[in-house]
Amino acid sequence: MTESTYPMLAVADALAIVLRETIALPASHIPLGSARGRVLAEDVTAPDPLPPFPASVKDGYAVVAADGPGIYLVIGEVTAGRMADFAVAPGSVAYITTGAPLPRGADAVVMVEETESLPAAGGRTIVRINSAVRPGDDVRPVGFDVAAGQQVLAAGTRLGAAEIGLLATVGAATVSVHPAPRVAILSTGDELVEVGTPLNAGQIRDSNRPTLAAAVEAAGGIVVDLGIAGDTQPAIEAALARGLAEADVLLTSGGVSMGNLDLIKPLLDRLGQVHFGRLRMKPGKPCTFATVEAGGRKRLLFGLPGNPVSSLVTFYLLGVPALRKLAGRPEPSLTRVQVCLSEPLRLDAYRPEYHRATVRWEPSLHDGRGGLLAVSTGMQASSRLLSMRSANALLELPQGDGVLEVGATATALLIDEI
Ligand code: AMP
Ligand code: MG
Fold it and tell me: Any bridge partners for residue 40, and if so which?
C-alpha cells in the first residue's frame, strides 16, 4: 500500500502551527471613513474631555440650586452650540436646551416639565420653578463621558459602529490599522472549466474558486483571482508565482491527494517549507500548509483538498483564523458554542468529524429555558456541497464508536451568524 510520508496531525496542532507562522500585517494610517471592520494597531486616548464644558442634560432652566422653587426672571437663553454672554445671578434663571453650555453662575438645571411659563410682565419673561434641585442636577460636568487623557480604545480592538464613533469623538480623523489580507485563489485540475463555459466530456465546473472567494470576502479578505491551472507543474508554478507577488495568502484547491497528478505538495516543498501535509479529520485529510519567503515577507500557502466540502471546511478551520490574525485580531479562533443535537449522529471510528449543521436558538430546550439546537444538513459526503448549504456551524464530533443520541450535547464552531 502506498502511504503518505506526511505524519497525520490533529487539527488543533495544525491550527497552532498556522497561527505560530502567522503575524499581523504591518499597520498603516487610513481615513476613519474606511476603517470599519479593521483592527486598531495603536491605543487611542482622548486629547480633550467630553463634554468640553458643563452641559445641560435637559431642556429647561439653568438655575442657582440654592434658590429653590418660586417665581423667577428669565434673563436670557442659551442653546446648544452657543456660549451665554451673561451670568445667572441668584434670583434669576436662564432658558437652556439639551447640550448647551451651562451659563456662568448657574449650578443646576430644572427640566421644563417642572416649570410653568407665566405671562410676560413689562416685556420681561417670567417662569415658575416647581421643584427643588441640588447643585449638579441635570448637568454633565466636564469630562463626564470621556475624561481628557483617557484611553478609549486599545490596540487589537476591531472597529465596529461604536468604536468608529469613539474615534470620531476624540478627533481621530485617521487611524493606524492592520490592512485586510490579500488572498490569491487558484483552482487546479484538468477537468475544471470556468462557470459559463459549456462542459465537454469528462469536465466539471470549477466551484471551489467562487466558493472560496466568497468565504474569503466574508472573512474580511481581498480576493486575487488566479484562475484555473491544469495539472501540469509549469502551469501551477506560474500561477503561484503571480500569487506570491500579489497576495499575503495563497489558497489552492485540488492536487494534494495521492494520485500521479497531485503536484501541489512537491511544488510547495520546493518553493518553501511544508509544515504539514495530512490532518486527522473528516473531511479534509490531505490539507497542506506551507510558508514561503517572498519579497522579504513570509507568505502563507494552503494546499486545500479538491473536494468542494473539504476545501471549504479546511479553509474555515485553518484559513479563517489565519486571515483574522493577519488582520490583527488578537483572538483569531472561530467561536465555539455548545449545542444540543436534534437527531442521532453516528461517529467515525477513525477520524474526528466536522459535521455540517444549522444551529439556531430553540426556546423549548432545557425545560423551556432555551438553548442552541443543531440540525444536520444531511448526508455528509465530502464531494456534496449541498451538505454545506445553510450550515452556520461545524459540529466537532469526536472519533469513536456508536452514535450520539438526540439531545446529546456537542461543541460547534461557528462559521456564520446564528
Ligand atoms: P483532487 O484533490 O484534485 O484529487 O480532487 C478531488 C475531487 O474534487 C475530484 O473529484 C475533483 O474533480 C474535485 N475538484 C477538484 N477541484 C475542484 C473545483 N475547483 N471545483 C469542483 N470540484 C473540484
Ligand atoms: Mg485534481
Answer: 177
